[in-house]
Amino acid sequence: QVQLVESGGGLVQAGGSLRLSCAASGRSFSNYAMAWFRQDSGKEREFVATINWRASSTYYADSVKGRFTISRDNGKNTVYLQMNSLKPEDTAVYYCAATLRWVARSSRDYDYWGQGTQVTVSS
Predict the structure, then answer these.
(1) DSSP E strands: which ranges in the chain?
(2) Considering all CA atoms of the chain, what is the largest pairwise distance in Å, rounded to the nearest integer?
(3) I want to staple 2 with a disulfide (CB 3.0 to 4.6 A). Which of 14, 54, 96, 112 is the partner?
(4) Per-residue pLDDT at 27
């Protein structure tokens, strides 16, 4: 069992930056690949980025490539999402998730989820 808690969301102007954090507790965090997804109201949850268990490989959605960076610190049981050059279309609730699968870009492949943190980008 893995418990995930996101933080770092908020309101930012277009072009600004935010860093999201996801703190994990429970067993064997370093065994899990971690990901960020996002969901805007009325839309399906969409993949943002994923990182493997030892942080040697990452994948990004085309919409965030070059602007967002996923990273992790296994010593702190935490995964991060650095978001730069934010756009209004990045507005959503952002969720972190954990899976033992690799590479997983579908929400169906993830076993554990946080409660989400709201990111709002104003134009």
Answers:
(1) 2-7, 10-13, 18-26, 33-39, 46-51, 58-60, 68-73, 78-83, 92-99, 112-113, 117-122
(2) 41
(3) 112
(4) 73
User: Going by C-beta distance under 8 Å and a sequence separation of 6 or more, which residues neighbour residue 52?
Assistant: 33, 58, 102, 103
Residue partners of 102: CB distance under 8 A and separation at least 6: 33, 52, 53, 57
Write out pLDDT tens, residues 61-71.
999 999 999 99
Strand 68-73 relative to strand 78-83: parallel, antiparallel, unpaired?
antiparallel
Please write the tens of the pLDDT for every residue from 35-70: 999 999 999 999 999 999 999 999 999 999 999 999
Q: Residue 48 — left, alpha, or beta (φ > 0 → left; ψ -120 to 50 → alpha)?
A: alpha
